[in-house]
Amino acid sequence: MRTKTGMTKARIGNRALGLLMATTLVASATAATASAANNPAAPPGPSAPGSSAGAPLPTDQFIVKFKPSAAGSAAERGKTYAKAAGDTSIDVREVKTTASDAKVVKASRRLNAAESQRMLESIAAGGNVASVEPDILMYPSATPNDPYYSQEWALSDPNVGIRVPSVWDRTTGTGQIVAVIDTGITAHSDLKANVMAGYDMIADPATSGDGDGRDPDPSDPGDFRTAGACGSGSSANSSWHGTHVAGIIAAVANNAEGVSGAAPGVKIEPVRALGSCGGYLSDVSDGITWASGGTVTGVPDNPNPAKTINLSVGGTAACPATMQAAIDGAVNRGSTVFVAAGNENQAASNDAPANCNNVIAIGATNKSGSKASYSNFGPAVDVMAPGGDTDAGILSTLNAGTTSPGAETYGYMMGTSMATPMAASVGALMKAADPSLVPSQIEAKLKATARPLPGTCSGGCGAGLIDASAAVAVPAPQTPIAAKAASLNGALGAATTGEVYGLKDNGGYQCFEQGCILYSPASGAHVSVGAIRGLWAATGFENGRLGYPVTDEVSGLRDGGVYQNYQGGAIIWSPATGVHISVGAIRGLWAATGFENGRLGYPVTNEVSGLRDGGVYQNYQGGAIIWSPATGVHISVGAIRGEWAATGFENGVLGYPVTDEVTGLRDGGVYQNYQRGAIIWSPATGAHASFGATRSIWASTGFESGRLGYPTSDEYPTGNDGSVAQNYQGGVIHWSPGGYYISWL
Residue limits of the Peptidase S8/S53 domain (predicted)? Predict the structure, then answer.
C-alpha cells in the first residue's frame, strides 16, 4: 500500500511546498492540506476540477513530539516554548494533544513562510524534542429506479464503469461502515437513511465555521470563503464536498429518488475535518484514528469503528509523519484506507497522502475509460476508478446553498476525490461479502481483479480499472473441518490426509502433522492432539464410550492442567498425574467437589471395574470415588478411607459406602456409612469402624453424644466363642453370644 491524496483539483502551491521540504529536513515530518474548490452545477453539466484560488499560507500550528523525559512535564515543555518565543519573538501555546500523544502548539498570530521556518528550527533545536512538523491545512479535491441512475455512467456502463450492479444481488454492503473524512455532511433525503452518527474533529473554533471546536455534530455549515480569507485573494462558494463524496458511496437506491450509491447498503460515518480554510493535518489525522476505533485525547471513543475509510484530501507534499502514524494505526485496527492520487497530472509520489504507506491510492478515469486529464499517475497509484473529466463528471448528492446550507440538490464534480469513493465502495462491498478480509487482502484483490483501462494511460495507472464483479466474491462455503483448520492459522502443520467421512453419525476427520480435526453434525469440529488424543484413541475414538469431542483442549487449569470434553465425558491431563478419563456418575460427583480445585484434586487412574457386585472406583490425588449399582457413587478420603482399606474395602465387613462423609458431629467428628456399618472419626479418637451388635449397643446409648462418646478402638476378640469388645471414651462394650454388658470408666 502507498499513501496518496484525493481532491477536486486542490494543490499546495510553491510557498507551502518550500515550507514542507524544509520541514522534512528539520523535523523529519511534513503535512499536506485539502479544501473544496469546485462550484458544482446541477445535472446535467459537470463542474471542472477546481484548484485552490491561491496557495494556502504557511500554518500557525505545529505538531511537537517530545522525548519521554519531557512529554509528561509541562515545565520542561514550557522551556522549549519559551526558547522558541525568544528566538522568533512569537509566542506559542499548547492547544491540544493528538492521538499519538504529540502536542499541538499554536502561534500567537499567522506566520509567513520565513517565520514558520524559524519557528520550526527553534522548536526542533530543543533538547527535549523528538520531532516537529507543521500542522498545515489540508483541502478536499473534488474535481435501480433512481431517476438519475442512467446518468451515473460510472455505475451503469459496464465498459468504463466499476461494474457494481452485477454484485448487488450478492451484497449492497449491508453491515459495513465507511468513514468519510471530509467537510462534514448536509441533510439530504437521498442520504438520510444511510448516515449514522459521526464527529466534528475540527478543534479550532476560528476555522471550524460552526463557532465551536470538537463535538459530536459533523454537519457541514459551509466552507465558503470571502476574498482575503485563508490567505486567498478571491472568494469561493461552499463546496459541499463531503455530501457529494458520501452520495457516491451510499445514496439510497431504489427509492425512486435521485441517484444510487455504489454501495447503497453501507452506512456513512461522517467525520468533519475540513473547514472554511481547509483542515489541519492534526485534525485529519485524529479523524483517521477516531474513525478506525483508536483513542483521541478529549474525544469519546467511537462506538462504531469503520472498516473502510475514504480520504479525499491532500496536496503536494511528502507524507507527514503524523498522518503516517494515524494511517498505520488504522490499518493495524483492521481499517482499509482509500486515498486520492491527486489532480495535478503529475507523479502521485509527489502528493500526500498518496505517497504514504499502507493506503490504497486511487487515480481517476474519464467516460472514455482513459486516464482523466488531471489525474496523477505513476507507481504510487494502486488502481483507477471513474472520476470524470470535462466531458462528463460524477453525479451525486449536493446542496444548493452558496454559503450556508440551502435546499438539497444533485450535481456533478470531477476529480480523484470522486474516484476514491468509487473504490472505497468496492472495498466495503468486498468486506461485506467476506468479513474475514484484512486491508492487505483487499488491496491485493482489488489489484489482482482490476482490468486494463478501456482507453489510454500515460505515466502509469496502477493495476488498472477496478472491477467489482471480479473483486466482490462471497467465499464458497467451507466445510466445518476446513473452517476450523483456517481458524488455527497453521498451528497443526501441513495436512497429511484429505477430509475423510463415513464415521459414526455422519462424522469425518482430517489429520495434520500435529494432530487431527474431528467433526460430526452433533458435536461440531474440534481439534484432537497429544496425550489426550492418545487416550481417546485407546477408548476407541468416536466409537468408544466418550464419543466425539465437543470442545478443543482447554488449558489454564490448576498446576498446568488441561481438559477436553467429549459427548460422553472428558479427558483430563496434568504434568503431575498424566492423562485420565472422567465419565458418568463418578465424574458427576467429582464435579460436585470442585473438579481439580476440590479436595480430590486430579484423577490419578482411569475408572477401574471388576469390583464385587459390579462396583467401579477411580483414584484421585486426594482420595477416591467408588460406585456400585446398589449403593451409588460416594467419595472415600482421608483417615476414614484408611480405616475402610484396613477392613478390606468393599470386600470387608463394611461393604460399599452408602453416604459420603457427614460432618457436624460433637467435637468436630465425622462419619461415613457403609452397607454394614460405619466409620467414625474425631480429632481426639481417630477413625474406627462400627458395625454389628456392638454398633447397635452403641447406638442405644446415643452414639458419640451418649455416655460412651466416640470409639477409641476397633472391635477386638475377647474369647474363642466369638466374644468381642470395643473401647470408647467413656467405657467398653463387651459382647458375647450370651449377651452384652458395658464397663464404664
Answer: 173-464
Q: How many whole angstroms separate alpha carbon 662 and alpha carbon 630?
A: 20
190, 200, 241, 244: which one is catalytic? 241
Amino acid 51: pLDDT: 36
CB 115 within 8 A of CB 140: no
Place of cell 509528561: 72
User: In angstroms, rounded to a whole number, what is the distance separating the alpha carbons of residues 672 and 636?
Assistant: 9
Residue 113 confidence (pLDDT) = 78
The single-letter DSSP state of residue 369 is S
The whole-angstrom separation of Cα 408 and Cα 190 is 9
Please tell me the pTM assigned to this model: 0.63
- Reply yes or no on whether 417 is catalytic: yes
> How close are the terminal C-alpha atoms of the chain, in Å?
96
Separation of alpha carbons 616 and 605, rounded Å = 12
Q: Which helix (H) or strand (E) holds 564?
A: strand 562-566
Residue recorded with cell 477516531 = 290
CA distance 52 to 35: 7
Active-site residue (options: 182, 200, 467, 714): 182
| Angstrom distances, CA of residue 442 to CA of 1, 21, 613 | 10, 33, 67
Q: Which of 320, 444, 310 is nearest to 383 (CA)?
A: 444
Q: Quick one: cell of 104?
A: 499541538
Report the candidate in 367, 368, 365, 357 with the shortest Cα–Cα distance to residue 383: 365
Q: What are the beta bridge partners of residue 181? A: 271
Q: Which of 556, 493, 503, 502 is nearest to 527 (CA)?
A: 493
Cis status of the peptide bond prior to 44, with omega within 30 of 0: yes
Quote the pLDDT of residue 140. 61
pLDDT along the chain (745 residues), means of 10: 34 21 20 30 40 48 91 90 91 91 90 85 90 80 76 94 93 97 97 97 90 94 88 86 98 95 98 91 96 97 98 90 97 98 95 96 97 97 97 96 96 97 98 95 97 95 96 83 94 95 94 97 97 97 98 98 98 98 97 97 98 98 98 98 98 98 98 98 98 97 97 96 97 96 95
Nearest C-alpha neighbor of 593 from the set 637, 641, 549: 637
Calculate Rg over the CA atoms of the chain: 39
Q: Edge-to-edge strands of the sheet including 129-134?
A: 92-97, 103-107, 61-66, 129-134
- Strand spans (E) along 369-522: 383-386, 394-399, 408-413, 500-503, 507-512, 515-520
188 in catalytic set: no
List strand residue ranges (DSSP E) for 468-540, in order.
Answer: 500-503, 507-512, 515-520, 524-528
With CA atoms as reference, report the closest residue to 426 among 465, 366, 466: 466
Order across the sheet with 632-636: list the strands.
616-620, 623-628, 632-636
Q: Please pick, among 417, 523, 528, 628, the residue that the annotation labels catalytic.
A: 417
The stretches of 450-529 forming alpha helices (DSSP H) are 468-471, 480-487
* Integer angstrom CA distances of residue 274 from 153, 200, 427, 615: 29, 9, 24, 80
DSSP 451: B
